[in-house]
């Protein structure tokens, strides 16, 4: 059996020229305290790897092992993540006058969200580097995913989350054996607590974009989209944006594929979708500034979007602008309404973070940011079954004592 090796070469700062050894514990750039990104020897890899080489491999994300950071195949932790479906949404597309609309359904991943991708690679790399105890803040779903993969890897995990996080996430984290800590505040408050605890106890901090490897798992969504579109990328990708790791991952994936010569220079417009109660990226795009200001008293029913300020905000804004993309905010009311509409017309019950994208589409079309002939992909980050408290039961009748259904 062929052993597929990683071509990981080093870590590179997203903001300055600093280079860091990839085989030591790393969090942020030692020079400017910005995010570090994994880099690969793509020139050497391109001498023998072809797109067809990925075709017959297992459908999980480890099919892309050459451009993932795990050196020893024995450390590749998996629960079957990746390889998610992409399919058309014809009824809703017709309603809004869009001819080509697809959804990439990340709710099919373990623990029900795309967070499984980042957790699989992040936990595997922590294991490979000899870490024993990890710690992270979370808005909910990332904690669930990292708890599951840490259980799989036999690592200890401390999770700090706001005390109004959906209960299902708390129960998942606890069931998977992680140590759960609740804070009366936002994910930013949880992050402060995690940072202090890691300094005090020597734990490895795996906060969003404060370690280099979560984004490596998320970028595999971009590899899959390229494969699923036969190496001709769509025109527009909508992405529900909290911390923005997935959008950074998409950009990184497309950049790496272009360096390999597998795609041309055409990049999809990347459009960030946020909630009106927490839209720091939207504000920064509208103001034309290079960074984000933290949102005070951030509020939204889409817990994954309740991130007052993305850590790698400067990088995220550069990516959006480099693709001639944009950012848009929608109300919670529109989000819930569109989530129910799409479930009832398409049979796709997405998390509210993804429902926000459906709410954004008509506005984007009326503003001519999307044209009727554009090939548009919605990146649905999770399944709505974690948010059932947001949806009231309708179309309900109580059977008579004889158990018969009566039609009035």
List the topology elements:
Layout: E1 8-13, E2 19-20, E3 36-40, H1 42-45, H2 52-55, E4 86-88, H3 90-96, E5 100-105, H4 115-128, E6 133-137, H5 141-153, E7 156-162, H6 167-175, E8 179-183, H7 187-201, E9 204-205, H8 214-218, H9 220-228, E10 236-240, H10 245-260, E11 269-275, H11 280-287, H12 313-322, E12 326-330, H13 332-346, H14 352-366, E13 375-380
Parallel strand pairs: 5-13, 6-7, 6-9, 7-8, 10-11, 10-13, 11-12
Antiparallel strand pairs: 1-2, 1-3, 4-5
Helix share of residues? 25-40%
What is the straight-line distance between the termini?
65 Å
The backbone outline, from C-alpha atoms, is globular
CATH architecture of the domain at 86-112 and 214-390: 3-Layer(aba) Sandwich
Order of helices and strands: EEEHHEHEHEHEHEHEHHEHEHHEHHE
Strand order of the largest sheet: 4-5-13-10-11-12
Measured on Cα atoms, how large is the radius of gyration?
Answer: 21 Å
Give average pLDDT, whole number. Answer: 94
Number of beta-strand segments: 13
CATH topology group of the domain at 86-112 and 214-390 = Rossmann fold
Query: What is the beta-strand fraction?
Result: 15-25%
Largest sheet features = 6 strands, mixed
Quickly count the helices: 14
**Uncertain stretches of 5 or more adjacent residues:** none
Structural class: alpha/beta
Classified by CATH, the class of the domain at 86-112 and 214-390 is: Alpha Beta
Labels describing this entry:
single chain; 408 residues; alpha/beta; Rossmann fold; four-stranded parallel beta sheet; 14 helices
